[in-house]
């Protein structure tokens, strides 16, 4: 069987303690050099991901924010797939002390 793409989670798969090892980065670079696509899947928000994974542009696509945002780093393009919750809902969960 010939695989054309690799989809991987970030935390606990590519990264450990928010850090991607040099060995893993080299493997991702070899994957890209082989002509395959790299898709990163994460619950993180993009600004946070970019701060802990500066090499995010190795990815052909990133599914971020638990599936709410699709990003194509090379094109600097984003597509919102899920609308944010209503402001009243956010206010209420903060009022009740719910934390992420």
Q: Mind explaining what this structure looks like?
A:
- This protein has 100 residues and is an alpha/beta fold.
- The protein is built from 3 helices and 7 strands; from the N terminus they run βββαβαβββα.
- The protein has helices spanning 22-33, 46-52, 87-95; strands at 5-9, 15-16, 19-20, 37-41, 61-64, 69-72, 77-80.
- The chain has a 5-stranded mixed sheet. A two-stranded antiparallel sheet has the order 2-3.
- Strand 5 (61-64) and strand 6 (69-72) form a beta hairpin.
- The longest helix has 12 residues, at 22-33.
- The radius of gyration is 16 Å and the shape is elongated.
- The chain starts with a strand and ends in a 5-residue tail after the last helix.
- The mean pLDDT is 94.
In short:
This protein is α/β, with parallel strands linked by helices. 28% of the residues lie in helices and 26% in strands. Helix 2 (46-52) links the parallel strand 4 (37-41) and strand 5.
Supply the key terms.
100 residues, elongated, 7 strands, five-stranded mixed beta sheet, two-stranded antiparallel sheet, 26% strand, alpha/beta, 3 helices
């Amino acid at each position: 069987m010939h695989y054309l793409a690799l989809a991987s989670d970030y935390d606990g798969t590519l990264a450990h303690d928010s850090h991607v090892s040099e060995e893993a980065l080299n493997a991702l670079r070899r994957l890209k050099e082989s002509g395959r696509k790299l898709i990163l899947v994460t619950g993180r928000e993009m600004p946070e991901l970019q701060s802990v994974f500066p090499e995010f542009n190795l990815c052909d696509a990133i599914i971020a924010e638990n599936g709410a945002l699709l990003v194509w780093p090379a094109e600097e393009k984003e597509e919102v797939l899920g609308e944010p919750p209503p402001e009243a809902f956010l206010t209420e969960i903060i009022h009740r002390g719910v934390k992420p």
